[in-house]
Amino acid sequence: MDAIDLERIARAVAEGDLTPADLIEHLRVESVSDLGYAQVDNERGVRTGVSEIIYGEGKTPSQIAGIVAAMRDAGQRRALITRLDAEKASSLQVLGVDIAYHERARAAVSGPLPDADGNGEILVLTAGTSDLAVADEAVLTARFLGNRVTCVHDVGVAGIHRLLSHARQISHAQVIIAIAGMEGALPSVVAGLASCPVIAVPTSVGYGASFGGIAALLGMLNSCSSGISVVNIDNGFGAAYQASLINHLKAREHDI
């Protein structure tokens, strides 16, 4: 159960559609499901607004299937599985796990995607076509977390006019995810044009001296533009999660 589900149930009680006893029954879930190979955190959705995301790499199909089943038993209607290869996705379907697999993103979703409820739009920009896999992971994650997303590809600094032609979209975005390999210059340029936070994602795209994305990572960390945060190499998921948090921020009232 996530925070949205909890709010929906609380409203139903307030409106008389559910009794207080029904509310207690809905909330009577063990905080952790101990599967032996995994401790599934059933209360994370209530605490943070987002239930556990399953990292598929290094897990067997049967382990992933067990985690998805435990989440469903605890009231979680949807699950995101990242870093999932096509063979493992096929095995999950054979095991009866209902998933929609996104091969280029190397990720799968069990259950329906939610309606977008963020404050604005997340804009995903890629420097080149070689960065598409990381972008797809970011886009799927952002949509899974309830965001409206627009993606613009191949607008790297080698042809700056391609990026400038999207200046209107840049100016209207709530959050921007800028994805680049090679020297990683794209986020610096984007942050100089945008009035919103920019999340930089270095990719492992590049020739030998790029060191598998380390050159892009260091370039982004040393950007002279303000308003940039940087995630790990090829971490489209992490960038989208952070972007979603920003896009869902609301003013908080504090008692004095």
Structural commentary:
The protein has 256 residues and is α/β, with parallel strands linked by helices. The protein has 2 domains: 3-110, no CATH class; 121-247, Rossmann fold (3-Layer(aba) Sandwich), CATH 3.40.50.1970. It contains 11 helices and 11 strands. The protein has helices at residues 3-14, 20-27, 44-48, 61-73, 86-94, 132-144, 160-164, 167-172, 186-191, 214-221, 236-247; strands at 32-34, 39-41, 54-55, 79-82, 100-102, 107-110, 121-126, 148-152, 175-180, 198-202, 228-230. The strands form 3 sheets. A 5-stranded parallel sheet has the order 8-7-9-10-11. A 4-stranded mixed sheet has the order 3-4-6-5, sandwiched between helices. A two-stranded antiparallel sheet has the order 1-2. Strand 10, helix 10 and strand 11 (228-230) form a beta-alpha-beta unit. Helix 4 (61-73) packs across helix 5. The longest helix is centred in the N-terminal third of the chain and has 13 residues, at 61-73. The two termini are 32 Å apart. The mean pLDDT is 89.
